[in-house]
Amino acid sequence: MTDMRTDLVKLTIDGKQVEVAKGTLLIRAAEQLGIIVPRFCDHPLLDPAGACRQCVVEVEGAPKPMMACTTTVAPDQVVKTHLTSDMARKAQTGTLEFLLINHPLDCPMCDKGGECPLQDQSMEHGQGESRFVDQKRRYDKPVAVSSLVLLDRERCVLCARCTRFSEQISGDPFIELFERGALEQVAIYEDEPYHSYFSGNVIQICPVGALTSTDYRFKARPFDTRSAKSVCGQCAGGCNQTVQSRRGEIQRQLARTNMAVNEAWDCDKGRFGFRLLTDDSRITTPLVRTGNDLVEATWAQALLAARKAITDAQEAGPGRVAVIAGGRLADEDAYALSKFTRTVLGSDDLDFRTTAEVAGRVDELRAYAGRDAATFADVEAAPVILTVGLDAEEENPILHLRIRKAWRNHKALVVPVGPRAGSAAQLAWRRLPTGVGREGDALAAVGRGVGLGRLAELAVASGWNHPHLDTVVGALKERKGAVILVGERAGADALSLAGQIADHVGAKIAWVPARAGDRGALQAGLLAGVLPGGRRLDDAADRAEVEAVWGPVPTTPGRTLAQVLADAAAGKIDVLHLVGVDLVRDAPSRDLALKALERVKTVIAQDLAMTETVEHATIVLPATSTQERAGHRTNWEGRSQAFSAAVAAPELAQDDWGIVVQLAAVLGKDLGFSDLAQLRAERDRLGRRARAHDWPTVDKVRPSAPTDGLVLLTHRLLLDRGTQTTGADAVLATARSAWVGLNPADAATLGVGAGDRVTVTAGQASITAPAQLDADLVAGVVFVPRNSTEVPATALDADGSGAPTVTVARAEVTA
Q1: Which of 41, 609, 774, 813 has a CA that sits 20 to 30 A from residue 247's CA?
Q2: Contacts for 569 with CB less than 8 Å, ≥ 6 apart
Q3: Per-position b or e across 497-535, b if 16+ CB within 10 A of its CB
């Protein structure tokens, strides 16, 4: 039997013995004893640098002082920190004196005041007065590193935390240390601004006030704010945050350390995208349409108007009411809405997905809902990572950091599967390129290669092959612990095929939606044919489990988003209840969404802000945001996390689940809960289905539609014209401008060069933007960001197929 203690090292620090793992840094070993060695450059998630020289310790037998942040433990080592060593204490005092020679003593006006390690350590370890009498060094200030980050160079202590984060963690080496000696300073390249999705992290980890936020500068001090624990609602990552407010208004949002989820990082959208709450577009009162105008109303008037519309629709016959939800809903909202639709409306016509139908069949998601998903930790440890129809940096930035960490730390083999590699292009070991929505073709071939005989005929029928196939198959068979991440854009059957491959080779699988509430919505059964916990509506036993808690539910699976929109546009639906969704920008087809909104008699919009969709509404119900309420949110891992209210909501805004309860009440039904505790208790009674459903059988290849041009590929970028970032001008200034992505071969055929303005056309719709040549984009495919132009790219998709044919031509130049 292996001795698990052979990798432990015993040493003594300040007279106390401790056992730690071999290779542990002295500074970490001291922390296990509760001894905090002063430091500036050290950060547990960054490689050691030994730059600041503040963490000096005395090691018995060593010929000179040692840096605790770069020295590893040794057996029987005897270490003295500043608490027991005069030498260490004197060295730290001297280091502080040198740091303060040129450091301005402007703590009262510095944004770091009150949370500054230099300020704290100067008080604890520094001298009481300065011996420096000469003129301090001065620089022009501040330097705009970006629209989000300002640099006060004279405050910098050259700890290199910011440059190491950019190089090691985010992979955006735009910020660097320039010059040498006394002239050394942080700067950016003249022709490369610091446009990173993670730039706010360098502000938070800066130990002094050298890097500050344009959004927060001179607005508050930490001791003058109230803090609340929250969970970000901008994507499905579930990043933990601290929301700090002053006088009822949010001042800033910080990454809150949770090593299992976001470690200590946050993306800029999550950090800075909260200005919607006080923007002029915010809905603060119920509205009811009178004539052509939406006019303010009381809650009673709005609810009674909704009751009349729903009652009239139900009397007109079945199938006249449908519900579509967006991605911002908390778990509690999704559960209440799922129960409301089935038990009060008596309908199964509901969907939370706003990608095209090829984004996964209902039976695939239903089978997935009852399974354990891969986790951030699994991704970090994986030797092989397949990303299927997923651009992690744009859709789930913190997941991208974990993929990059696995690639950097142990050379994980990253394999993008799909028509475009996106952010994974820089990390990719091999690629398995496919057509738009055809990821299943490649996965079928992979499945045959790893030994899934039942996929052999499917793989042959698809005709897909690639020189890298055997290499990828070999890696999956030889390296245990692989992870397959399936994005929401992956074509039909992709999730089922990936699941079968994962089960066969012992890999982990996860479905990675882009929006924060999607995994919770799936677990709550906010999808036609799916009941809470991954139960099947058409399974008598599953339905009986739900009816034991809910009462009777419909027996026939309802319509999904594409079917609802088509029927609404045809006049077959009278009431469309939209909860936190902007159909005009989010639906697979802008035209179809507009036709549906114009044809439906009553649109009930439950939302935060006035959007193009809400402008078509008949009844508008104001909802609260994540920062204004308590609840839970389930991330892509299936991890449910609690968040609490940080600021008060507008007086008349209400939580989504509470609005649903009131709608049920005016319709004469009681949902059975009147507070969050009762709702959660009922939801927990249902839990998850005892046994996961089998992956759906895939026994035929979907035929490829004939094309007379290029096929459109589109998905949202992290920073775009979405509602959630309304008013967040500083972070939107760093957004990537819209472009038209072309394979170089296609560009040559079209006579288009990089930077040329081109027009993408389909039917009567067109979008014009600069061309960008992308060798990682499959030939025959054109990429346009979905929501980065005034008219979204979904305007090019008339029927919502998800892969329309388009034409591309040079834009006409006007004088």
Answers
A1: 609
A2: 592, 595, 596, 599
A3: bbbbbbeebebbbbbbbbbbbbbbbbbbbbbbbbbbbbb
Starting at the edge strand found earlier in the chain, the sheet holding 413-418 runs 432-433, 413-418, 384-388, 483-487, 508-512
Q: What is the pLDDT of residues 179-216, one digit of tens each?
A: 666 666 676 666 666 778 999 999 999 999 999 999 99
pLDDT band at 358 (very low <50, low <70, confident <90, very high): very low
Domain boundaries, the chain: 8-98, 133-278, 287-352+519-686, 364-516, 710-810
Angstrom distance (rounded) from CA 104 to CA 317: 75
Sign of the dihedral through C-alpha 70, 73, 78, 81: positive
Cα separation, 558 vs 201, whole angstroms: 45
User: Which class is domain 8-98?
Assistant: alpha beta
Three-state SS at 650: coil
Q: What is the DSSP string of 688-732?
A: S-SSPPPPPP--SPPPPPP-SSEEEE----SSSS-GGGTT-HHHH
For the stretch 101-110, contacts whose Cβ atoms lie closer than 8 Å and that sit 24 or more positions apart, written own/partner, are 101/132, 101/136, 102/136, 102/137, 102/154, 103/136, 103/154, 103/155, 103/157, 103/208, 104/136, 104/154, 104/155, 109/218, 110/155, 110/209
Task: Give every CB contact of residue 592 below 8 A, 6+ residues apart in sequence.
Answer: 565, 566, 569, 798, 799, 800
Q: Which residues share a beta bridge with 802?
A: none
Judge contact between 102 and 71, C-beta under 8 A: no
pLDDT digits (tens, 9 = 90+) for 361-413: 788 999 999 899 999 999 999 999 999 999 999 999 999 999 999 999 999 99
DSSP string, 382-408: -SEEEEES--HHHH-HHHHHHHHHHHH
Q: Which CATH architecture has domain 710-810?
A: Beta Barrel (2.40)
Strand partners, 72: 25
Residues 6+ apart with CB under 8 A from 260: 375, 376, 377, 639
SS3 call for 498: helix
Q: What is the mean pLDDT of residues 477-505?
A: 95
**Cα 530–Cα 533–Cα 538 angle in degrees, nearest 5:** 35
| Cβ burial, residue 755 (10 Å; 0-12/13-18/19+) | exposed
**CATH placement of domain 364-516:** 3.40.228.10
What's the CA gap between 514 and 397, in Å, rounded? 10
Q: Does pTM top 0.85 for this prediction?
A: yes
CA atoms within 13 A of residue 210's CA, in its CB half-sphere: 25
> Which of the listed CATH numbers 3.30.70.20, 3.90.226.10, 3.40.1440.60, 1.10.60.10 matches domain 133-278?
3.30.70.20
Average pLDDT of the chain is 93
Which stretches within 178-241 are classed as H helix?
A: 200-205
pLDDT level of residue 134 (50, 70, 90 thresholds): confident
pLDDT category at 359 given cuts 50, 70, 90 is very low
**Cα–Cα distance for residue pair 451/11, rounded to 1 Å:** 51
Provide the token pair at 256: 């809150």
Distances (CA, A) of 132 to 89, 104, 135, 138: 20, 12, 9, 15
Residue 281 amino acid letter:
S
Query: For residue 807, what are its two tokens?
Result: 């034409």
Residue 689: C-alpha distances to residues 428, 524, 684, 686, 715 (Å): 37, 12, 12, 8, 32
Residues 6+ apart with CB under 8 A from 88: 56, 57, 58, 65, 80, 81, 82
Place of tokens 């730690």: 20
